Structures are given as C-alpha cells and as structure tokens.
Amino acid sequence: MSVENLEPFGARLRHAMDTRGQLCVGIDPHAALLTSWGLNDDVAGLERFTRTVVEALADRVAVLKPQSAFFERFGSKGIAVLERAVADARAAGALVLMDAKRGDIGSTMAAYAATFLDKDSPLFSDAVTVSPYLGFGSLRPALDAARISGAGVFVLALTSNPEGAEVQRATAADGRSLAQVMLDHIAAENAGERPLGSVGAVVGATLGEAGADLDVNGPLLAPGIGAQGATPAGLPALFGSAVGNVLPSVSRDVLRHGPDAAGLRDAAARFADEVRVAVAG
User: Fold this and answer.
1) Do 50 and 26 contact (CB within 8 A), yes or no?
2) All domains in the chain, ordered by first residue
3) Which of 24, 54, 213, 225 is found 20 to 30 A from 89 (Cα to Cα)?
C-alpha cells in the first residue's frame, strides 16, 4: 500500500488484528539476546538479528515494534539497520510501531514527529510511542503529523514499570489521576472515529488493576506479556470491555526462540492463539 493513500492507522490496525491476531512482537536486540543467538554485540550481529526477526514474522503478525534505543546505541550504522527493518517489515504487511517514547515541546516535538510520522522520512512508521508528561498539549505536533500521514500515536498512560506510579497515579487539581487525565485526552482525540481511533494508550499488562477508565475508542498497547510476568489470560480482568482493542506486546519470550525462524514463528503463533482464546472469553 502506498503511504500516499494510507487509511487512518486505527482502521488499518483493526484490520490487522482481526486478520492476523491481536499481537505485537517487539524487536529488542539486547546484547544478551545477541549473545544467546551466537551473534556478536556489534552492527553485524544487530543486522543479522533484526533481519531474521523481520523475515520470520513480518508476513504474519499484526505489529512489529522495534525499540529504537537498541539501534541508536550503534550510531548511524545502527539507524541504517533500523531504516531497512522498518521498510522490509512494512513491505511484508506488518504494521510498524516505533518504540521511541519521544516527548518534548514546540519545534523539537515537531522534529521528532517529522522523523517518525512524515511519509517522506526513511524512518516513517505506522505509529510511534510518545510521552505526554510535559503536558498532553506538547504532543500536538505529533498528533497533527500522524493525522496527516495516516499514522498513529501511542501515549504513555499507565506503564508497567513500578516507578511510573509516582507520576501517573498522582492526583490532578480536579481529583483525577494524571493517567486518567491523559486517557481522557486520548478519548477526546478519538471521538467519532470508526472502527477505531488512531491515538492509543500504553497500559502495562502487568498492572494488578487499572483504576482508570480505559474506554478511549482507540488501541491499548499492553507491554509486559511473557518475561515480565503477565499472561494473555489476565487481559480480560485488567481491560474489561475494552479488551477487544488491546494489542498485547511480547518481546523476549518470542525472541529467545531465535535464531531459528520456525521457533520464532511458533512462539508468536502460540501467543496469538492464547490472546484469541482469552479475548473470546
């Protein structure tokens, strides 16, 4: 599909989840993972690892999520590997969610948006993760750029790391948690969108309970499945009526089955099946 004629991200993601299953697989080339695959922790190892994952999974999973930091650590050569991975994954039919967690203001936020959400950028992705804790309004350049290009934005709301609670569970002047403030902003951005809005929220699957209204009419990226302790079976209790819009994300518990391509495919298929059963109730 030409990027000039992209449907809104929410519609494309809904179709991908309905046809390929509700699953996002992270591409996280940790040094330890490279070593476990018998690869060196260098650009050559990074390239081999990334190409293997993309070739094994991009034609079957709904979303691939490269973690930008693991490529950036190798400088320009690492970014070149990331550019190729994004292009190859999208060409094979996967949606690419760039896990960059960018957050800034004004022209700097606009530059981040141009990097990941401008269709002419070599790192153009179907969606990007962003941090709203400089104020939701600081995300406007990214939100506007995504709308123009048919891309999506996933906003950090209730993250799985324990440290996040001191900010996200803090109380705003009107009594809402800061996380709920962000979720309400997301819902406002998605108002009236069908079948699904293009502004998503990041809500950790490892949370014991949400303590917030997750009905944002948009996708809910749920990291933490697998190695971090969350399971697909626990998704309905956490997400309730919004569970059909959840995009569970797993990384290490799929990637550890490499470098064998069949092992990667089988692991991803198992998680997708477990999510399907859990969501179906």
Assistant:
1) no
2) 3-275 (3.20.20.70)
3) 225
